[in-house]
Amino acid sequence: MNRTETVTLLDARSVPDQMEAAREAFVRGDYPTALEIWGPLANAGMAGAQAYVGACFAEGWGVEPDYPLAVRWLTLAADAGDREGQRNLAALYFRGDGVPEDFRRASKLYRAAAEAGDGPAQDMLSWMLLEGEVMIHDYAEARKWALAAAEQGVASSMTRLGMLYHDAVGVERNPELSVQWWRRGAERGDADGQAMLGAACYLGAGTARDPQQALVWLLRAGTGRSALASRFLGATRGVLTPAEIAEAERQARQPLPGPSP
Predict the structure, then answer these.
(1) Per-residue model confidence as pLDDT tens digits over 29-42
(2) Angle between the N-to-C axes of helices 47-59 and 67-79, in degrees from 0 to 180, rounded to the nearest 10
(3) Are 87 and 98 a contacting pair, CB within 8 Å?
(4) Which of 78, 76, 87, 70 is nearest to 35 (CA)?
(5) What's the pTM?
């Protein structure tokens, strides 16, 4: 059965079934099939499909990147209240891709998506509120949105919460709570969380001192290209034996442990 026949059969299914089939194709990397399913749905006015089509044009998934088309489809989705469309359109305004750079427009779109429950948008809104370059500093709200994103499994927000407790930003300093959040982010693959957890293990700050485990996390962070890891790598290696370093390197190559609750 060729792709056209497959899509024709899908047209007879319910819209949710078609959307699910498209998502399954997208996940396995079959972008052309996903787009062939989403395309008619997007043209029929389905905001969710419009958001996916716009994202494909923005990222070049199954098509040549085309920012004007991405903006067109994402704007339709965002105006209809689709949170993924709002978040992806916000990213274009934030970077100035296909539209003039407009941080104010981006922040409004991120906030709309965050309020609709989109985890990555909540994470980005938290970062913007914390940095204060695009929006006015609001540490309490930054923490609120980081918590919301963390509850949805967004690892970078977990790491950010650890930094808030480490730096006493809007909260009392709490090294143990910092480590708890860094560990959650680290176990989910956030490189900065891995670097900070490694540093905490090396220093014995908020957790038992364990230079070997420190090196494991710092090596993982380095693989993930965290600039924070290099500050502690040399010092950590310096207190370990060659055998301990070899074992840490072996562990760092293993899959990540299951995430903590």
Answers:
(1) 999 999 999 999 99
(2) 160
(3) no
(4) 70
(5) 0.90
